[in-house]
Design goal:
Elements (H helix, E strand, L loop, with lengths): L17 E7 L7 E4 L12 E7 L5 E7 L5 E7 L10 E10 L6 E11 L7 E2 L3 E7 L7 E4 L2 E2 L9 E5 L6 H4 E3 L5 E4 L10 E10 L4 E11 L7 E7 L3 E2 L7 E8 L9 E5 L5 E5 L4 E6 L10 E10 L6 E11 L7 E2 L3 E7 L6 E5 L2 E2 L9 E6 L12 E3 L5 E4 L10 E10 L6 E11 L7 E4 L9 E5 L7 E4 L1 E3 L10 E7 L5 E3 L5 E4 L10 E9 L7 E11 L9 H4 L8 H29 L62 E4 L7 E4 L6
């Protein structure tokens, strides 16, 4: 025998996914409603062990059990009375859970419908209704409407209205609509016969429940004749500068009724600028009480109401349409306190740059505005001739091209005047801002590009990377980003030796100088602005790589010759011999001049701090780099930088243009060429 043991491989299954249960209200607590239970193919502890409701509610619980081994039941138990008017429907899930591990479950949705019963009587919205009706109201006139409500649904909530049988007097004068509760006149009423009617109205629902309310109908006496209003005089339009108290209209009122119904009173509706002024008996004047402003209100609709003292009073109305004529009391007003307009430099002539606009609150000719340019003060010169304004529409034109570098902005005064008499006007300042364009190329200030050839910068052979050779200085006449300058190395004898600072123009050594580098280096630096399109300029400069700064006595123009860098040593030797010969010749010339022209010597004395000259003289003026009327002293030592030159101002600047004198007295005066160099 083989026994197959059960495992929990089946979940409970309800025969239906949704069940609707209809329960009449209110229901008795403890009432049970049987349901079809779930089935589980498993046995033993794996079969259905429990039922539950989700979500839990206060009205129902679930009960389950078995009458025998084969007869099991599941029931809903009502725990609390139901009220359809409070909740007509509800829903929840019935969950069957087996005892397996893990447990399995099945779900069935239960929909509860609460059936209505007639447990609510009709209720009127008011305990008593009061209505008034004129005695001349026509037949079928609705006096009032009574309203009752019933919380029940269906036929139990349908309400019908009827008069109570005890109120027999209503049969002759009133009728009620059984569906909507409207009480209407069945025939005309007579105030003299009855001043009021008391009615009783019953509201009955479909289940037979009813309610009563009281209805009081008051009959109102009728005033049969309305007042009459007769106009004698009326003036319109009136000027806006009319004085308070100005009479606009004269009229009288009358009523054919007598007694209280014949007493008449007049009123002017909602007016602060006008009022009624009684004159004689029933005559009235319509007058102004305050100053008028046409720009605020151009037309007044005045309604005069005449009412008698009847009950209810009868009224008559008369409408006066008063137009206000304009006077020129408003000056033009610009829509801005000031205007700022922009134009690019080099503009085309007669270009439109903007417009001014002024509005005048007046009308007609008083509101016609013309524009013109005026001086800021009566004594000022005429406004700028390069700006014009259209007299009709206020368009502002620039008549000729402008240059940002000459003028940055222009201010003019625009005058707006109306056509009134006298004319009123207003002024506004118009600021014309000239917008810069990139129309100026950078200008190199240093090194100067006027000399040919360019001056040379001295660089020691011992200089390390980062050594400052020189600095290119440039300016741009434009402004803003058009004047932002950047520096670039365009060409160089040895591009790998130098680097140029993009922002500051500093020319520095990229690497240390070596013996293999040519002595003469030539560089071209590109200076470019940031305009669109960019403009640029170039700066040419040269640099000499020197082992000792004693070599700087060479004239700059002799170093400008290209192709002789390989013979620099020989050139220096030749130059030294030349200087020595020149020194001897100069000494001989000085002695000759002292002997031959001693009496003809003129001019001032230049005193030097050094007692004697230690080296030869160099005619520096011949190099074209020093001014002739001045003498200079240059003191250099080996390894000195190019920034260690010392320039001495002359003691007597009125020397002859080609010579300087040197000596301790008139007997020792010697005439030297200008530009002494001491090494």
């Amino acid at each position: 025998e083989v026994a197959v043991e059960d495992i929990n491989d089946h979940a409970p299954v309800f025969p239906e996914e949704q069940v609707t249960v209809n329960i009449p209200e209110p229901g008795n607590p403890g009432s049970r409603f049987p349901l079809e239970g779930a089935r589980d193919l498993d046995i033993g502890s794996n079969s259905i062990q429990a039922y539950s409701i989700s979500p839990k509610n206060e009205y129902f619980s679930v009960s389950f059990g078995s009458h025998s081994d084969y007869e099991k039941y599941v029931e809903l138990v009502l725990e609390k009375p139901l009220d359809r008017e409070e909740q007509a429907e509800m829903g929840f899930n019935l969950i069957a859970m087996d005892g397996g591990s893990p447990p399995r479950s099945g779900t069935m949705e239960i929909h509860i419908v609460v059936l209505d019963v007639n447990d609510n009587s009709p209720v009127f919205t008011q305990r008593a209704y009061v209505g008034k009706v004129f005695e001349n109201a026509p037949e079928g006139f609705v006096v009032l409407r009574v309203v009752a409500t019933d919380l029940d649904a269906g036929p139990n909530g349908d309400i019908s209205y009827q008069f109570s049988q005890t109120m027999s007097q209503s049969d002759s004068a009133f009728v009620i609509d059984p569906v909507n509760g409207e009480i209407k006149l069945k025939k005309p009423l007579d105030f003299e016969a009855a001043e009021k009617y008391e009615l009783s109205v019953r509201a009955t629902d479909g289940g037979g429940l009813s309610a009563l309310c009281k209805v009081l109908v008051e009959v109102v006496d009728v005033n049969d004749n309305a007042p009459e209003l007769v106009v004698s005089t009326f003036s319109s339009p009136i000027p806006e500068n009319a004085l308070p108290g100005t009479v606009v209209a004269l009229f009288n009122v009358k009523d054919r009724d007598s007694g209280t119904n014949g007493k008449i009173s007049c009123a002017l509706e909602d007016q602060l600028s006008f009022s009624l002024r009684p004159t004689y008996k029933n005559y009235y004047e319509l007058v102004t009480v305050s100053t008028l402003d046409r720009e605020e209100t151009a037309r007044y609709i005045l309604i005069v109401t005449a009412a008698d003292a009847g009950s209810p009073p009868l009224t008559a109305t008369q409408t006066f349409t008063v137009d206000i004529s304009d006077v020129n009391d408003n000056a033009p007003v610009f829509n801005q306190t000031s205007y700022t307009m922009y134009v690019r430099e080099n503009n085309v002539p007669t270009v439109l740059v903007g417009a001014v606009s002024a509005a005048d609150a007046d009308v007609g000719p008083n509101a016609k505005v013309t524009y013109s340019l005026v001086p800021a003060h009566p004594t000022d010169k005429p406004p700028c001739s390069c700006i014009s304004v259209n007299s009709e529409n206020g368009d502002v034109f620039v008549l000729r091209p402008l240059d940002y570098e000459q003028v940055r902005q222009i201010e003019v005064l625009v005058h707006a005047s109306d056509a009134g008499s006298p004319a009123l006007s207003a002024n506004v300042t118009v600021r014309l801002v000239i917008v810069d364009e990139n129309d100026n190329a950078p200008l190199v200030l240093y090194p100067s590009q006027d000399s040919s050839p360019p001056s040379s910068e001295l660089v020691p052979m011992s200089a390390e990377a980062g050594y400052l050779v020189t600095k290119v200085v440039a300016v741009d006449a434009d402004s803003g980003q058009n004047s932002w300058l950047s520096y670039h190395l365009l060409r160089a004898s040895d591009p790998g030796l130098f680097v140029v600072g993009a922002q500051n123009g500093e020319v520095r050594l990229r690497r240390p100088v070596t013996e293999r580098d040519p002595v003469k280096q030539k560089l071209v630096v590109l200076v470019r602005d940031n305009g669109q399109p960019p403009l640029s300029a170039t700066a040419s400069l040269s640099a000499l790589l020197l082992s000792e700064f004693s070599d700087v006595h060479l004239p700059q123009n002799s170093l400008a010759t290209e192709g002789e860098d390989d013979f620099l040593t020989m050139y220096l030797i030749i130059s030294l011999v030349f200087v020595s010969v020149l020194f001897l010749a100069s000494m001989a010339a000085f002695v000759a001049l002292k002997v031959c022209k001693r009496n003809d010597l003129k001019g001032g004395h230049v005193l030097y701090g050094a007692g004697n000259m230690q080296s030869g003289l160099v005619d520096a003026a011949a190099a074209g780099t020093l001014p002739h009327p001045y003498c200079y002293e240059i003191s250099l030592t080996t390894g000195s930088g190019n920034s260690e030159f010392k320039f001495l101002k002359p003691i007597l600047p009125s020397l002859p243009p080609q010579h300087c004198t040197m000596g301790k007295g008139t007997d020792d005066e010697q005439d030297f060429p200008c530009g002494l160099v001491t090494m």
